[in-house]
Amino acid sequence: MNDSIVFPKSPLEEVGGIPYFVRMCDKIRLHASGGLDADYIRNLGRGFDRWTCDFLRVDYADLVEKVLSGLDDAAALEWAVSEGGERTATERDWWLSYMRNRGYGDDFSELLAKRKSENGFEDRDDIVSFFKLIDADEGRI
After folding, report:
1. CA atoms within 13 A on the CB side of 12
2. Sequence spans of domains, the chain
3. What is the tens place of the pLDDT at every residue in 59-111?
4. How far apart, in whole angstroms, are the C-alpha atoms of residue 77 and residue 75?
5. C-alpha span between 140 and 134 (Å, rounded)
6. 3 falls in which pLDDT band (50, 70, 90)?
7. Distances from the Cα of 56 to the Cα of 18, 41, 72, 104, 126, angstroms
């Protein structure tokens, strides 16, 4: 963990029952203000950002425009849902499980183990997903 970095909000923070969206909006704002560390910039619109936008059926660039126009997280999510359409309860449940558990017994398990090792967390049994790894790496757990 680097104390000089301003970390984006936790991926576990939710708005409207959706995890990660708050973090994505925070990264967008931090980047626009010049406050987002370079390590985060290369993944803007990719990975969890892309998976979240895909779930909401919105384009990342359009979301960036809305967030930077001044919408708060709740209003940005409201825009995304109105733009992309509601998801069924089943679709939402599947996506929530996918996001919250990414890295646990799936095709990203090896990458999670590698990232844990790189960050000195190989002995941390509580880090079983990328959300937990992010929070550990950024000093929240």
Report:
1. 12
2. 1-100, 108-141
3. 999 999 999 999 999 999 999 999 999 999 999 999 999 999 999 999 999 99
4. 5
5. 9
6. low
7. 10, 22, 17, 23, 29
